[in-house]
Amino acid sequence: MTISRAEVCAVACADSFADAGSAIASPFGTIPSIGARLARLTSAPDLLLSDGEAMLIAETPPLGEESTATVEGWLPYGKVLDLLAGGKRRVMMGASQVDRFGNQNISRIGDWAQPKVQLIGVRGAPGNSVNHTTNYWIPQHSTKIFVESVDLVAGVGHDRARQVGAKYHDVQVVVTDLAVLDFQGPDGSMRLRSVHPGVSVDEVREKTGFELAVDEVAETRLPTEDELALIRDRIDPKGLRDKEVPA
Question: Cα separation of 173 and 120, whole Å?
Fold first, then answer.
C-alpha cells in the first residue's frame, strides 16, 4: 500500500495531540487539522474540537465540508482566553521563522524600522507559548524558516522562557514535510528526532539554518491501516492533504 508524505505528516501531527486529554484543539493548517481529528478518533478521545467559530462539536467532521455535527457547547472568544490561561488548550501553529530554541516569528521579516515583509502580527503566539502546550507545523522545511535568530519573537522559545521563569511554557515538537524535531538537545535546543521515509539526515541539515542536535535518528512512523482508513475515508475524503504536502 502506498502511503503519501502528507499522510506521514498527518500522523506525526496526531501524535502531538495524543496526551492532550480534554483540552481544546486549535490546529492551524490542513495537516494539523487532520492530525487533531485523527487523534480524537484514536489516541485522544477526550480532545475537544470546535467548528472554527464559537461552538464545540460532538462529532469529528471531515475537512472541507460544512459541519452538521451536534453542538455540545458555546465557545465565545472570552472563553477561549480562559482556556488558554488555564492550560486547557493545545495549539499547533505555523511559523514564518523558528530558531534552535523554538522562538517563533509570524510578525515581520527584516529590520524593525523598515521590515522587508509585514506579516500577520504576533497574534496569540505569546500567550499560547507561555500558557499551554504549543507545537509547530512547517509544510516546507527550508533555511528561510529555520534560522539562527528570528527577526521578532512572537512565540517564546526555551531560552527566553528560562530567562523570565515561564512556568507553563511547553513547546514540544516541530513537524515539517521532512522530519519531526523536538527540543531535547543541549540547553533545550532543537534536536532531529525522526526523518520521514525517503528523507536523509543530511537533507534536513542542509535545509536548516543552524546546527541541529543529532543523536539516534529514527524514521517517522507510518500510519496504521486503521489510521489510513480514517484519514482517507472519514477525515479527508477530498484529499486536501496532498495540496499542502504534495505526494
Answer: 23
* Residue bearing cell 490546529: 27
User: Which residues, at least 6 apart from 206, have a Cβ–Cβ distance to it below 8 Å?
Assistant: none
pLDDT 10s digits, 177-187: 999 999 999 99
Q: At what angle do helices 5-16 and 30-41 cross, to 10 degrees?
A: 60
Secondary structure class of 65 (helix, strand, coil) = coil
Which letter, b or e, does each residue of 194-225 get, where b requires 16 or more Cβ atoms within 10 Å of its Cβ?
A: bbbeebeeeebeebbbeebbeeebeebeebee
The DSSP string of 161-229 is HHHHT-TT-EEEEEEESSEEEES-SGGG--EEEEE-TT--HHHHHHT-SSPPEEEEEEEPPPPPHHHHH
Residue 116 and residue 78: Cα distance in Å, rounded? 34
Residues contacting 209, CB < 8 A, separation 6+: 143, 144, 146, 147, 148
pLDDT digits (tens, 9 = 90+) for 76-95: 888 888 888 888 899 999 99
Full-prediction pTM beyond 0.85? yes
Taking the CA of residue 33 as centre, how many other CA atoms within 13 Å lie in the half-sphere pointing to its CB?
Answer: 18
What span, in angstroms and rounded, lies between the C-alpha atoms of 191 and 20? 22
Query: Beta partners for 133?
Result: 170
Q: How far apart are the first and last CA of the chain?
A: 14
* Strand, coil or helix: 97: strand
